Amino acid sequence: MNYIEEAKVMYDELVAIRRDFHEHPELGFELERTSSKVKEFLKNEGIEYYETAKTGICAIIRGKNTGKTVGLRGDMDALPLMENNENRSYCSKVNGRMHACGHDAHTTILMGAAKLLNKMKDELQGNVKLFFEPAEETTGGAQIMIEEGVLENPHVDAVIGLHVSEDIECGKIGIKKGVVNAASNPFTITIKGRGAHGAHPNAGVDPIVAACNIVNMLQTLVSREISPVNPAVLTIGYIHGGTTAQNVIPEDAKIGGIIRTMKKEDREFAKKRLKEMVEGAATAMRTSASIDIEESYPCLYNDDNMFEMFKSLAKNLLKEENVIALDEPSMGVESFAYFSMERPSVFYYLGARNEEKGIVNPAHGSLFDVDEDCLPIGVALQCKAAVETLERLINK
């Protein structure tokens, strides 16, 4: 089958679907309209599905041989951001919300793949599950979907995911072996002191000064305690303390930030040392500290065999010069990581940049857009990857 040509037949339909989602962005788990549109589409195509993770959807296409199953994932949620692409006919119609990360394209591609795979289900050497994930931009719907059993009944043997990239030219893809994305641990630190008049600091215990010292000290966790050859980032996102009064020492101060690491060992070490450093610094300054470190997204790993398989089929489909080997992992996080921790997986970046069309702006920005010519390419890659993965699993 010529997957590219088959997907191109759906081009107008894919564009219409993507633009509809783009005009009506929804956030987090509150994806009632988006989810209903996906379910309506699946119903019309005769594809069975069930609801999961509140507004998430797990659909299944059952092939002639039901012994093996591969999963395809697409995320659906938008961002709380005002879009500034007024010159686009499909600009967001929802104030303060925007598909600024391409999840509208991801959902559309998964729907297109569902349609094409369902047409050829009698030729499939197994099943294909379709994971429409909510809340990727927040807490990650993937973890809940997994907890609710989407990887079982039937058992999923491998999972494939993608993300559009504004840094890669449309018509090309980027793929990395090994670690693709970092793990993250958001944290909140509350420093308790004792309030006093600003003229008499000796009568109180200043939590703001303690907080400032903690912020400075935490920078050494990466620069002096984690190997310089291992990527790691510690970012302080906010520090709050006091009111608008300039002559009042407050009772407490709060610090919020996030740790990003590429190795499990570094992740555990960083959490341990952050706690030790904060408690030590707080005690030294006669304050007390409470520390909340969240377990957020894990590292995203590409399975070696899945990576080689996908790289080979992508070169066959797109030509070798259009498959870019990425050297560096991203310090950003991706909830597909939860799938990669459970099953052999491959995750790649689908080029969506087009300088001639002015589609060059970064994700999570108010001018972000994608070259819609990437939509059939994504559909073709997902379908071919699902088919070849099933064939390899059967012949293993």
From TrEMBL:
It holds the Pfam family M20_dimer. Keywords: Hydrolase, Manganese, Metal-binding. InterPro entries: Amidohydrolase (IPR017439), Bact_exopeptidase_dim_dom (IPR036264), Peptidase_M20 (IPR002933), Peptidase_M20_dimer (IPR011650). GO terms for molecular function: metal ion binding; N-acetyldiaminopimelate deacetylase activity. Mn(2+) binds at C101, H103, E137, H163, H364. Residues 187-280 form the Peptidase M20 dimerisation domain. Coiled coil: none annotated. Its cofactor is Mn(2+). GO terms for biological process: diaminopimelate biosynthetic process. The Mn(2+) ion enhances activity. PANTHER family: METALLOPEPTIDASE, PUTATIVE (AFU_ORTHOLOGUE AFUA_6G09600)-RELATED, PEPTIDASE M20 FAMILY MEMBER. This is IAA-like amino acid hydrolase. It comes from Clostridium acetobutylicum (strain ATCC 824 / DSM 792 / JCM 1419 / IAM 19013 / LMG 5710 / NBRC 13948 / NRRL B-527 / VKM B-1787 / 2291 / W).
